[in-house]
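This follows on from our talk about sequence and fold. I would like you to pick a protein and set down its sequence and fold. Go ahead and set the record down below:
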Amino acid sequence: MITRAYRLLQENPNPTEEEVRFGISGNLCRCTGYQNIVKAILEAAAKMNEMKESA
């Protein structure tokens, strides 16, 4: 999941929630849901974009 999230953000540095869900759809997770995973990816995208802007 982490590897796919990294690649997803390399391909699309500012994804929507729908794009994140589609991007990780091929990965299976036994956790209670993907809500926190999607939230973490969106937060990572925001932080990465902040870092780009401040550089």
